[in-house]
Structure formats: C-alpha cells, structure tokens
Amino acid sequence: MRISRLYLPVPLASGADVVLDGERAHYLRTVLRLKRGFDLTVFNGEGGEFAARIGVCHREAVSLTVGEHRPDDRESRLDVRLGLGISRGERMDLAIQKAVELGVGAITPLFTERCVVQLDGERKAQRLEHWRRVVWAACEQSGRNRVPEVLDPRSLEAWLPEAAGLRICLDPHAVHGLRELAPPVGSVTLLSGPEGGFSDAERDMAVAAAFVPIRLGPRVLRTETAALAALAAIQTLWGDMAV
Q1: What's the number of CA atoms in the CB half-sphere (13 Å) around residue 159?
Q2: Nearest to 136 by CA among 102, 109, 101, 87
Q3: What does the pLDDT look like over 95-127, one tens digit per residue?
Q4: Coil, helix or strand for 236?
Q5: What is the pTM of this model?
Q6: Where are the beta strands (DSSP E) in 71-198?
C-alpha cells in the first residue's frame, strides 16, 4: 500500500507533535481518509522528508508525530525556470501540475497580448493561491521535497529582463530545434505562450532579450502541450529524464 505524502509549510523535527490547521487537517481526514495510527510522509519544502504517524484524527483536531528524517533528494540537476502565458482554468492548472512533475524550479504566470484571462486585485490573489496549491499537490504526488515557487503574475515585458542562463522561446515558426543548441552552462529559462501564441511584437521582444526561438516539430501544439513537451525534451537532453 502506497504511503500518502503531505506538504506542511511549518518547521518539522523528529519527535515533534504537529497540530494541523483547518485546510491541511481537512485534506488529511476527508480527502486522504487517513485515521489514527496511520503512517504517512511529510515534508516542508526545505529538503528531505519525514516519516510521521497520525495521533489524533477527528473533527475537532488532527495531529501527528514526526518521525525519522530521510534526506531524499529528487530535484533535477538542471535548474529550469518557466515563464508561462496565462491560459484558462484547467489548461493552466494542467500545465503547472505537469511542469512540477517534470522538475521545473520556478513558474511565472505571464500576461501577454493574446491572454484571454483577466486578473485584477482579489481575483489575481485568489488565482495565485490556487496555482500554489496545485504545486503543493503535484509535489505530494511526484515525490518532490522542494516546492517550486509560483511568482506573482506579471507582464511579459516586465519578466523578460529577469531571465537568466540559456533562454528558449517556443515558437512554431522558428527554424531551429533544441538539439541544435549547445548544452546549457547553468540554468535554463523557458518561455511558453498562451492560447493564440505570441504576437510578432512579443517575439521580437523575446529575441531582443536574448531568447532563442525554438520549434518542437511540424505540428502546432496547444499551450499546455507545448510547455510540457519542451520541458520533457529539455530534461531528456540535459537533465535527469532517462530514456
């Protein structure tokens, strides 16, 4: 039987008793359906993970006792940062979830000319919190013990100067593929567009910011597919995916 994993953004130490807050307690009790005496694995994003056992589990309180620390490291040796054009609902969730599974180090949601999603004020904060919870769940599922950061959404123009390392822009009109690039020394920054792709002006801005336009093949991929296909290829070429 698979041991459930739970992300707890609190200090953890062997021998400590941890009382879970409302949301995490509800998830453990109602979603995972764990009970008193059940074993699980917990992690807080600082590296490694802990064995744990549930002590109290009822509607009024849920607590667990933290056990042995295990210094397991499942992070990719390649630091990949993703600038992701914001798409609608489940498409964005899927792209973020799978990007985490594929080892991305950080994700920045980007507003672009053809972005169909408008986020202002409270709604922007709610979506950012939602995306971060998608990341938590993906780390729990995939075994990652460090939690990739989802940065505040910003415009493409504001984000481009933040890029570092080998800079790749997905462009179905490009003439070069990933295999034609020299292996990166340091990090990789990947730029993937929204539904409808980038405008000509945005492509020009990316190239001016030292991004290399890359195509993934003869077919035009949907926004969520393109980012994931590129991440898988990057991890296969230069990261830790085995083929």
Answers
A1: 26
A2: 101
A3: 999 999 999 999 999 999 987 777 777 888 899
A4: helix
A5: 0.92
A6: 80-85, 106-111, 149-150, 154-155, 166-170, 188-192
